[in-house]
């Protein structure tokens, strides 16, 4: 998943969570009811798979107070801390929040300190998700056919060849299942990258 560029400090690692979709398979497999299907008769946004991400930077004299305020509202918004990198002068926190609470959660965080910058992005991953689903359905249909062939086969070499293909398909089915699960997680729980910087009041000498 491409995240907007930002300053996260030397210890913050960006991870690409948007996997490459697999190559399409030409197969006659039918899709299940949960598959994403689009037509001119379906409203454009109803079936879209969208990942939301926000980057919020704040200043506060006591960043630990802002951090504790955020912790206090996690349950209210069905949110959790995915990672945190805390130093004496900077808190770098990656939060995940139930997508339907995304906007309200951010608005409440903004009240905890002085906002320096804020960006919010959305990434439509519908096409990649649909490609994964189609590939998965085709592989599952092929897997079922191979199992039927193995059950009917009597030649040892034929059985060994079929078993090898079955194993390869099952490995790919597992990989695609994990990719779909990762995308579902990013869709269901949006990401908030929060940075809290400590501000130091300058003494005025008269």
Structure notes:
With 206 residues, the protein is of the alpha+beta class. The protein has helices at residues 63-72, 102-110, 126-152, 156-188, and strands spanning 50-60, 79-86, 90-98, 114-124, 189-198. Helix 3 runs antiparallel to helix 4 (156-188). The longest helix is centred in the C-terminal third of the chain and has 33 residues, at 156-188. It starts with 49 loop residues before the first strand and ends in an 8-residue tail after the last strand. Residues 1-18 and 23-43 have low confidence and may be disordered.
Structural descriptors:
alpha+beta, 4 helices, 5 strands, 24% strand
How are the strands of the biggest sheet laid out side by side? Answer: 2-3-5-1-4
Low-confidence stretches: 1-18, 23-43
Distance separating the two termini: 53 Å
| Form type | elongated
Number of strands: 5
Q: How many helices does DSSP assign?
A: 4
Q: How helical, in percent, are the residues?
A: 25-40%
Biggest β-sheet strands, sense, barrel: 5 strands, mixed
Give the structural class.
Answer: alpha+beta
Radius of gyration: 24 Å
Q: Mean pLDDT, as a whole number?
A: 83
Q: State which percent range the strand residues make up.
A: 15-25%
The secondary-structure element order is EHEEHEHHE
Please summarize what this structure is.
By secondary structure, this protein is α+β, with helices and mostly antiparallel strands. 38% of the residues lie in helices and 24% in strands. Strand 2 (79-86) and strand 3 (90-98) form a beta hairpin.
């Amino acid at each position: 998943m491409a995240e907007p560029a930002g300053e996260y400090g030397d210890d913050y690692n960006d991870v690409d969570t948007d996997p490459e979709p697999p190559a399409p398979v030409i197969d006659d497999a039918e899709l299940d009811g949960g598959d994403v299907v689009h037509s001119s008769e379906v409203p454009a946004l109803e079936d879209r798979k969208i990942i939301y991400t926000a980057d919020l930077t704040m200043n506060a004299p006591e960043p630990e107070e802002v951090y504790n305020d955020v912790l206090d509202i996690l349950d209210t918004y069905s949110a959790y801390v995915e990672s945190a990198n805390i130093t004496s002068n900077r808190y770098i926190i990656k939060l995940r929040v139930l997508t339907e609470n995304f906007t309200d959660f951010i608005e409440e965080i903004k009240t905890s300190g002085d906002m320096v910058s804020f960006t919010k992005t959305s990434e439509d991953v519908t096409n990649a998700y649909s490609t994964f689903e189609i590939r998965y359905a085709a592989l599952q249909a092929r897997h079922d056919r191979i199992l039927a062939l193995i059950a009917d086969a009597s030649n040892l070499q034929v059985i060994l060849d079929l078993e090898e293909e079955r194993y390869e398909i099952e490995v790919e089915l597992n990989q695609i299942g994990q990719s779909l699960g990762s995308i579902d997680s990013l869709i269901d729980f949006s990401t908030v990258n929060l940075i809290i910087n400590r501000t130091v009041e300058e003494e005025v000498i008269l």
